[in-house]
Specification:
Blueprint lengths: L1 H6 L15 H5 L4 H19 L25
């Protein structure tokens, strides 16, 4: 997976945020849209926090996920 991502000029990394629930996103349960919106807010704040800070890493572009683009409608 890492090689596939890097072959497209991107960087794969893990963002540890254990206190932000993601179970509804993972399982496609009702309420996943709200969890996705919360993750989008967190990632936007994270991006603003590190904006202008040279981490020596590839710049991260925000990716917007929606329940319909997540590819699962299982409940």
């Amino acid at each position: 997976m890492k090689r596939l991502v890097e072959d497209h000029g991107l960087e794969l990394f893990v963002f540890h945020a254990n206190r932000i629930p993601r179970d509804r996103i993972i399982h496609g349960w009702p309420g996943r849209d709200e969890q996705i919106e919360r993750w989008i807010k967190v990632m936007s704040l994270f991006k603003r926090l590190y904006q202008g800070v040279d981490t020596g890493r590839i710049p991260v572009s925000p990716v917007r996920l929606s329940a319909s683009s997540a590819g699962t409608d299982a409940r």
